[in-house]
Amino acid sequence: MSGSVNTVPRGKPALVCPAGSLPALKAAVDNGADAVYLGFKNATNARNFAGLNFDPKAMVEGIRYAQSRGREVLLAINTYAQAGRIDEWRRAVDAAVGLGVDALILADVGLLDYARKVHPDARLHLSVQGSATSYEAINFAHEMFGIRRAVLPRVLTLAQVEQVIASTPVEIEVFGFGSLCVMNEGRCWLSSYATGESPNTVGACSPAKFVQWEKVPAAAGKPESMDVRLNGILIDRFDPDESAGYPTICKGRFDVQGETYYAMEEPASLNVLELLPEILAIGVAAIKVEGRQRSPAYVAQVTRTLRQAIDAAFDNPERFSVRPAWKADLAKVSEGAQVTLGAYNRPWR
């Protein structure tokens, strides 16, 4: 942060929460979200996991539920159209507009161009998958495709976010809570290497069809364990008393020169509670919660906590402090039971 930032919030940012299912959408709306984001049950959606997302009937019900309560619905078509199948992604854009959602979240420049030309009145947001980390990139997307908001990748310091906001007419959305990704926002070379598929092509990191769980019986003085493999590659081993999250190769534990540890990234969740006054002061338009793959209980807890915290920071930024109950509530749903400020508080420049 630069020392010149005004501590008076410019306007209360929207709280944008994940909806991987109809119950999760209702949990977000009922607990204070200003907007929800969701996706179709297909590869156009970067959270294309089995058992998640919306069929046509649930989509109509979810949109009705949110909009009838004055909340916005943002529909993510945030993977990249694959060669020979471009019409699938174009049909998703057409369907989203026909459903009357409040905005489309797009990453693929070809789809942005299509949406701008075919649906000129549609509100377009540039997805974090678009990896626009500078105001020049955002302004280009604004000039070429008319985007109204850009979601920033989680690699910028708060001072860099401030510079972007000061240099673009586009609304800026930042992440406030949820899992982090060591890759270039969905361009997962590790998942591609191990399985041939990645979030930006099929909409899922470590696709479930490649995941194998193996119970390893106790032997030679070692306790029983659970091995997890991704397309045959051993990426972690859990003891009976360890909790195991969804296996992603970047957050696996590996044997490196005789030592086993998280070689690439430890499981942790971004949590910006303590930075909320600064985030509000620089003019962020929206604060986003990651987690369309998480449960309705997760959505309810995070939405409720951030709603209270954002309201408190906006109403009295000078006297804002993080309540112990907020920290405790978010710690319960944090990945690996750890939290971080991520790049927002990076000590080097």
Largest sheet: 8 strands, parallel, barrel
- Class by helix and strand content? alpha/beta
Cα radius of gyration in angstroms = 20 Å
Helix amount: 25-40%
What are the low-pLDDT stretches, counting only 5+ consecutive residues below 50?
1-8
Strand line-up in the sheet with most strands: 1-2-3-4-5-6-7-14
How far the N terminus sits from the C terminus, by CA atoms, comes to: 11 Å
Oligomer: single chain
Q: What overall geometry do the principal axes of the alpha carbons give?
A: globular
**Average of per-residue pLDDT values:** 90
Helix and strand element order: EHEHEHEHEHEHEHHEEEEEEHEHHE
Number of strands: 15
Beta-strand proportion:
15-25%
Count of separate DSSP helical elements:
11
How does this structure look, described?
It is a single chain. By secondary structure, this protein is α/β, with parallel strands linked by helices. The protein is built from eleven helices and 15 strands. The strands form three sheets. The protein has an eight-stranded parallel β-barrel with strand order 1-2-3-4-5-6-7-14, surrounded by six helices. It has a three-stranded antiparallel beta sheet with strand order 8-9-10, with no helix packed on it. It has a two-stranded antiparallel ribbon with strand order 11-12.
